[in-house]
Amino acid sequence: MYYLGIDLGSSSVKVALVEANTGKSIGVIQEPEEEMSMYAPEKGWAEQKPEDWWNFVCKGIKKIKKNHNIPKKEIVGIGIAYQMHGLVLLDENGEPLRKSIIWCDSRAVEIGNKAYDEIGHEKCDVHLLNSPANFTASKLRWVKDNEKGTYEKVFKFMLPGDFIAYKLSNTMNTTISGLSEGIFWDFKQDTISNSVLEHHGFSQNLIPELVETFGNQGTVSKQGAAESELLEGTPIFYRAGDQPNNALALNVFHPGEVAATGGTSGVVYAVTDNLSVKESSRVNNFAHVNYERGHLKRIGKLLCINGAGIQYRWLLNNLAVSSYEEMNKLASKVEVGSDGVCVIPFGNGAERMLLNQEIGTRIVNLNLNRHSKAHICRATLEGIAFSFVYGIEIMKSDGINAKVIRAGNDNLFRSEIFANTIATLIQQEIEIYNTTGAVGAARACAIARDGYDIFSSYMKNDHVMTFMPFKDKMQYQEAYKNWKKELELIIN
Fold first, then answer.
1. Which of 281, 253, 292 is nearest to 269 (CA)?
2. Structure confidence at residue 410 (pLDDT)
3. Topology alike, domains 2-244 and 251-434+462-492
4. What CA–CA distance (Å, rounded) separates 492 from 490?
5. Residue among 463, 462, 458, 461 at smallest CA distance from 431
6. Residue 260 and residue 221: Cα distance in Å, rounded?
7. DSSP-H helix ranges across 201-302
8. Contact between 248 and 444 (Cβ < 8 Å)
9. What is the reported pLDDT for 280?
10. Which of 115, 218, 266, 320 sits 20 to 30 Å CA-CA off 463?
């Protein structure tokens, strides 16, 4: 028997199959093989068609079943992970009313800022654990203000993962974790936020029924079965946004456990029971997957670094190199600190952890007579690593005391220079695991059926290596000090 995991990203959909008894990954496929389309009719906008997501989910399910010759009756549970903060609007017939306004769309920034001021900073911090910012609630308000005809037809709004679950089951529901990422959850009252609804003039009827993050969230309907080629009646056991799900995939559930991701953007996601909002302008706070209403207050503190892997990818595309492996080898020939060369890697838009400043990428202290592309490669890896350390320092000031840091084996953490730099500067081991978001979503079905112990047992064979901090950290500290000095000159 098998569990199926769906990971809906903004560039592709990944579908995974794992053995239900052992958690062993059978395979992961991606649809489409190239990137999904994104629509940007105005500067700063980003939209996708929910129908496209569903088509790629169905293609992915069919392909992975065929590739591994798995009959549909042997798939006994479905888990869903999805791109966070998106807005999907459905009419009373369950049809999308417009394209989804996705996570990286910035049209509602000022709406969120105004809500923060008018609801009140202290009230937002204490009750929402965030400023409303450019999240789902603000995007819904934008539609209300700018597309009145569309808004009047809205029966329910959804997050992207809710939409996939609806297409599978013909049931409209959502989770506390999902509502919290949209800034609809009042953590102090432990209920849907009346302050947000009243401020924007939203009816609570627009919110789908609440279901548990783990548990039977609905079963595959006749139509869902026909389109996906899954068995009618197959249960959906789990649903969460991509960053909480990545933490779950790395077995991060308890205070002091931290998940890190070094993909196109970088993420540090720490679990806490501390409701501190000292850094709410730079760190977001959401209900983690194991948050329990009235019982277990598990908060995921999320710090995002936009300029991470995209910086190294840009270098690959624009240097005379053929692969990341070649770049890593070049970088390894240069001493710690890159002979003074510093890369400030923030060229992927406004950085929330820098208070939404858009400072771009800078290469400083470059000597054209002495430095080569090897120095640029090393300085870039170090610069991205330093940005992670800078973010971890912010999280420490917000009450996070990291006891263990875990990362996947499919991103920047595969680089020894990158991982060793972070581990040494924070004096903390970094554990690397061979898992993905889609595999994590599939395995999460086991929590709904059998509890956390069996899920934790799945991780035993996933450990790849542990990066230990170097005892001699003076060179690293000096390099980080120089980098931070350059950053502060720019931002001040």
1. 253
2. 77
3. yes
4. 6
5. 463
6. 36
7. 222-228, 242-249
8. yes
9. 81
10. 266
- The one-letter amino acid code at 73 reads K
Domain ranges of the chain: 2-244, 251-434+462-492
Whether domain 2-244 has CATH 3.40.50.150:
no
Q: At what angle do helices 309-318 and 324-332 cross, to 10 degrees?
A: 100
The whole-angstrom separation of Cα 4 and Cα 65 is 10
Identity of the residue numbered 55:
N
Grouped pLDDT means (10 residues each) for the chain, 492 residues: 97 97 96 92 94 98 98 98 97 98 93 97 95 95 98 98 98 98 96 98 98 97 98 98 97 96 93 87 94 91 93 96 96 98 93 90 97 98 98 93 90 94 96 95 96 89 94 97 97 90
Q: What is the phi/psi pair of residue 176, to 5°?
A: -60, -45
* pLDDT value of residue 28: 97
DSSP β-ladder status, 236-241 and 75-82: parallel
Instruction: Classify domain 251-434+462-492 by CATH number.
Output: 3.30.420.40
DSSP codes joined into one string, 270-300: EEES----TTTTTSEEEE-TT--TTS---EE
Q: What is the pLDDT of residues 74-95, one digit of tens each?
A: 999 999 999 999 999 999 999 9
Residue 329's contacts (CB-CB under 8 Å, 6 or more residues apart) are none
The closest alpha carbon to 82, from 13, 177, 180, 25, belongs to 13
> Which residue in 444, 398, 406, 439 sits closest to 299, CA to CA?
398
pTM equals 0.93
